[in-house]
Write a structure and sequence with these properties.
- The longest helix has 25 residues.
- The protein has six helices and two strands, in the order E-H-H-H-H-H-H-E.
- Helix 4 runs antiparallel to helix 5.
- It has a two-stranded antiparallel sheet.
- It is mostly helical and 125 residues long.
Length: 125
């Protein structure tokens, strides 16, 4: 058997976007769902981002990890849609999935790993 990259890369690109969307939704809820009524939502969001990404805060690593994951998902998606290095995108998604196993819950890991199913086709040589 050998590895062949098929036309399923467009589906894989959509699935990478789905992973990014889930992580962006995490940020959206954090920034805009639970805010005091006395604060402007934009100012409150800016303050929340400063707090979440502050290196002195103990849990800031998870917020940085989600931002890195969003960038990786979007990069993999763009490569799968427009790039010629589709095999590199597959390796990027695979490495991201391995890292995600140690960071996120299983549902987020499955969203990040989903492109691997459609991106690669095995064919008898």
């Amino acid at each position: 058997m050998h590895l062949e990259i098929g036309m399923d890369s467009k589906i894989a690109g959509v699935l990478s976007l789905l992973g990014a969307t889930a992580l962006i939704a995490f940020w959206w809820v954090y920034l805009f769902a639970a805010r005091p009524d006395c604060l402007d939502s934009f100012q409150s969001a800016i303050d929340s981002v400063k707090y979440a990404l502050s290196p002195v805060e103990a849990g800031s690593w998870i917020f940085v990890a989600t931002l890195v994951s969003i960038v990786l998902c979007l990069t993999a998606s763009l490569i799968q849609f427009f790039g010629k290095q589709k095999r590199f995108a597959m390796y990027l998604v695979a490495a991201h999935t391995v890292a995600a196993i140690f960071i996120y819950t299983w549902s987020v890991v499955l969203l990040i790993a989903a492109p691997l199913y459609y991106f690669v086709k095995f064919k008898n040589a």
